[in-house]
C-alpha cells in the first residue's frame, strides 16, 4: 500500500491541490477574474461608482480599462501550463505595489466617501493577499525543483 504524497504547504487546502504548479495557476486565475471583473465594473459605470465611492469618474474609467487589460494578461499567464517565473514575479510585484499605493492614495490623495474608505483598503488587502498566495505558490514550485516526467 503506497502512501499518498501531500504537501505540507498551508496553501494546499486553499488551492485544493498539492501540486504547486496547479496552485499557482489557480491563484493567478482567481486574480485575473477578480481584477478583470473589478475593471469591467469601473469601466462600465464610472459615474455611479465614482459618486458612490467618492472617487473621480475619470480616474475610475482609466483604472477600469487598465484593470481589464491587466486581468487579461494575468489570465493568459494562468492559462499557460508552466507560467514563466519572471512574469509571475512581475504580477506579484505589481499586486504588492497596487496594495501599497491604494493605502497611500487613500491617506495622501483621495477624499472618498464612507463607502470608498471601506472599499479602498478592502481591495488593497485582497490584492495584497493575491500577491502573498502567488508568492508562496511560486516559492513552493521553486522548492519542488524541475518538473519530472
TrEMBL record:
Transmembrane region(s): 27-45, 57-78, 90-110, 116-138
Keyword Membrane: yes
Domain of life: Bacteria
Keywords linked to the UniProt accession: Membrane, Transmembrane, Transmembrane helix
Name of the featured protein: Integral membrane protein
Native species: Streptomyces durmitorensis
